[in-house]
Design brief:
Chain lengths: 305, 259
């Protein structure tokens, strides 16, 4: 008996920096839903209007673009840590946020947190945690590249200090050094499979072997850098080859993201199972590509280091 | 509170919601409407974005009497395809326009500037039912320029706004775009009434361009080209009807028959 092709959710992906070729390959590889967190665009914005237009594209244009490829698109809204350092601008962005956080398809406040762990970063991190509590939304936390362990611990301390329940908070960009504390304190632990700077997927396999699949989430954070929008399906395939149970792969590459962000009330499986989205057949004039055959058709090398 | 000619319509729509929506949802909306007179701008804006949390995409069922009430105000209004969510958004905006008239336009512009697809669609569909609809003509035209077909359709289809308020140039662009993106022309209110010679010329040019590119030409295009044809267009149609290109010949004949 052949098993049904696996479905995937990539809960951290910046489509605004990607092309339609990516969307096509993602759908072919089995990605049915994605979450696009509001983030830093690679260079600092100089006025609040740029933020507003960006938020509008997250709730509008990017959602539409993904839907054309049969992918259900959600987003998170927030002020990222780098731009929190521009206080005058940050104040104006904080005024915009309430307009967006309650909208349909917005599944969390995020990605917020620390970059250099400055006073201003902490100020707007805290303000946004308060906003999340007020509107009862999950929070997506970006953990810093530099001084990561301390930055991650402090981020969780702040969440608890502001009275947020750990099960409403997703801590992202974990690694071997941070995962244990995050899981022990009851938060969701997300891992970003991103060449060179974050996790590789062989390392990810080892994490799941050691910690299991409970509250662990895999994502790509694919953006304007050298990154891979197929990181989630590629990692799933590698896990399968390395003997990880199908059910565990389903949990870390699909189900856990749905459980964590579904707490917003804005994301249900029926959104894509019953959605009137185009099928693959409409894209390639062929039958729907399935499972591994499709993945091999669209990627050369599934190892990401 | 200001009394307007829209009051009976507001009552019809609100009663429809009371009949069909979850009681908790209708209660939420009623409380929101009662407080409209003295709440802050932030709440004015966030109330609107919370409507999808309470109202579903179920079709609004209106009674015969309801349709009579609506037709008595304006017979071009067609609300038969509206959902509960659409209705709730429009009821909210209509009530806001009545209770906070001096601030209403600025707020609607703010809502539009941060709106998602669902909210934009709801605003565009209800524009004609707001006081002084003509003051939002720039926003309606922006909707027509959208590359997102759902937004274009929200202005163009089943919506009395363009036929009532668009000047000829904008109307013609709307019709051409509807054909270009293959929207359902029959759902455009005022389609035949607003046929005009300039539109007929554009349609005829477009038909020839499609023919040259070996692409199909929709039948409605020919009928519409014929309806608005002036003498110059009629002459062109006449000479096409006599060519040896069967597709153009057939189309031109059907256009001339519609004239």
């Amino acid at each position: 008996m052949t098993e049904a092709p696996m479905k995937f959710i990539d809960p951290h992906l910046h489509m605004t920096s990607r092309t339609t070729d990516d969307l096509l390959r993602m759908r072919q590889a089995g990605i049915v839903a994605i979450i696009e967190p509001a983030f830093w665009l690679g260079q600092p914005r100089t006025n609040v209007g740029s933020f507003q237009d960006y938020f509008n594209s997250l709730i509008g244009w990017e959602r539409f673009r993904a839907s054309q490829f049969g992918i259900k698109h959600y987003c998170t809204i927030g002020l990222n840590s780098k731009e929190a350092n521009n206080e005058a601008l940050a104040e104006q962005v904080m005024e915009l946020l309430p307009l967006y956080v309650c909208k349909e398809g917005v599944v969390a406040i995020g990605e917020i947190g620390f970059d250099e762990q400055t006073t201003l970063e902490e100020k707007y991190f805290r303000k946004q945690l308060e906003l999340a509590k007020q509107v009862d939304m999950p929070v997506l936390i970006h953990t810093p590249h530099r001084d990561k362990q301390q930055g991650t611990s402090r981020s969780m301390d702040l969440c608890l200090e502001h009275g947020l329940a750990p099960h409403k908070v997703i801590i992202d960009h974990n690694n071997e050094e941070t995962v244990q504390e995050v899981l022990e304190r009851g938060f969701w632990a997300a891992f970003t499979i991103y060449p060179k700077t974050k996790m590789g997927n062989e390392r990810m396999v080892e994490i799941v072997k050691r910690y299991g699949s409970e509250r662990i989430i895999v994502d790509s954070s694919a953006d304007w850098g050298h990154s891979d929008p197929l990181a989630v399906p590629k990692t799933a395939q590698l896990m399968l080859e390395q003997g990880i149970a199908r059910q565990q792969i389903h949990e870390v590459c699909y189900q856990n993201a749905l459980l964590a962000y579904g707490q917003s009330g804005q994301m249900q499986e029926t959104d894509w199972l019953n959605a009137d989205l185009p099928t693959m057949a409409e894209f390639n004039g062929n039958s729907v590509l399935r499972g591994q055959a499709s993945l091999e058709a669209v990627c050369d090398d599934k190892i990401i280091r | 509170m200001v009394q307007t000619k829209f009051d009976p319509l507001l009552i019809v729509l609100n009663d429809g919601l009371a009949r069909q929506a979850y009681p908790v949802s209708h209660t939420w909306l009623s409380k929101v409407l009662i407080k409209l007179e003295d709440i802050s701008e932030l709440h004015i804006l966030t109330n609107f974005s919370q409507i999808p949390r309470y109202f579903t995409q179920t079709s609004l069922n209106l009674t015969q009497t309801d349709y009579q009430v609506i037709a008595a105000i304006n017979e071009t209004w067609q609300l038969s395809h509206w959902t509960l969510r659409q209705t709730a958004c429009t009821v909210y905006l209509m009530a806001l326009a009545v209770q906070r008239p001096s601030e209403f336009k600025a707020w609607l512009l703010k809502l539009l500037s941060s709106a998602n697809l669902q909210e934009l669609t709801a605003i565009y569909q209800g524009l004609a039912l707001l006081p002084e609809p003509v003051s939002f003509i720039a926003q309606a035209k922006e909707g027509v320029r959208s590359n997102i077909s759902a937004l274009f359709n929200a202005v163009a289809l089943n919506n009395p706004y363009p036929a009532c308020y668009f000047e000829t140039d904008s109307w013609n662009q709307l019709i051409l775009k509807a054909i270009f993106i293959e929207s359902d022309l029959q759902a455009i209110i005022g389609l035949e009434q607003r046929a005009n010679p300039e539109l007929s010329r554009m349609l005829l040019d477009y038909a020839c361009e499609r023919y040259a590119a070996n692409r199909p030409i929709t039948k409605v295009l020919w009928r519409l080209a014929g309806l608005g044809a002036d003498q110059a267009v009629a002459q062109r149609l006449q000479s096409l009807a006599e060519t040896d290109k069967p597709l153009l010949q057939q189309g031109a004949k059907s256009a001339l028959a519609a004239k």
